[in-house]
Amino acid sequence: MAIEVLIFGAGAVGAFYGSRLATAKNARVSAVCRSNYNAVRTNGFSVTSPKYGTYVWRPSNVFSTPLEARKSGIAWDYIVVSTKALPDVSDDSQLLEGLVGSPTAVVLIQNGLGVEEPYRKRFPHASILSGVTVVSAEQPRSGEIKHSRWTRISVGPYLPNNDAYSLSNENETATSRNLTFVNLLVAGGIQDASAYSHEKLQLVRWHKIAINAAFNPSSVLCGGPSNAVMANDPLFHEFLKGVMEEVLETGPKVIGQPFPSDFASSDLLLRSTQRDPTGGRPSMWADWEQGKILELEVILGNPIRLAQEKGLNMPRLQSLYALARMAQRMRIENSSKSKI
Which residues are in the Ketopantoate reductase C-terminal domain (predicted)? Predict the structure, then answer.
């Protein structure tokens, strides 16, 4: 029997992983598209990759809305959500109403912390899987996916009550579905896909926050310098290191476990960034340039709140959060005034 996968939010990241999943045996991969619907419906996704070459992926079904996907009557085994996480704008979990059944696992490939809770609360009987990736991919034109480098993705079951219910059927089911999904990725050529426990995956999220929370809002607040420019400036280097260290010290205290020894230190992360020849800028800067709402809550706000629940403060993140929120507020207010 075919494994039915729905890519919900078929942008660059979702479409790239969807195209790889589609090559796995017995996988049927469909997509809900928005602005790129007409292009994908007509021509599929054209993918270029230094690792996988150039190819076309035609989803088994292309839907323009969640309603169309619901009307298909397909029982989805996996729904992969790869949209921006903007809880201050909307609760996107409601868009999956009528798509998630008891055999469904919802896979969240999104930045930040706390992205899983809305889905867990709305779909308590479904398996919620949490994914973190470092893939570099973009969609320069509708339906054209350019994969530049990296494929690594880590996925783990979201089990916030794991200690109390570690032997429950629900947790065993979530862990089994998680392993099946990772095996599909590996079968699709993503050899560095890894299945992690709940705790280790949440540590991965905190580790990535150390990078995103340091570089993303900083680039926005400073007018768009690249990651390498920021990391190579002596004063800014010390600032970035301070933010990263604050996150790396707080995360294990919130989770209750230390980072694995193979997780890179702040010094190693910064040295790697200093040598980056691409001139790449944080994705938050691109969102700012395009006038989009920024992922401030999941990258800055939620880490601060999770720390406060444990009696911990994050003054560096709190400063970045306050500054970035005010910058976004003023831009929105000024934009509204200009339209009057």
Answer: 201-327
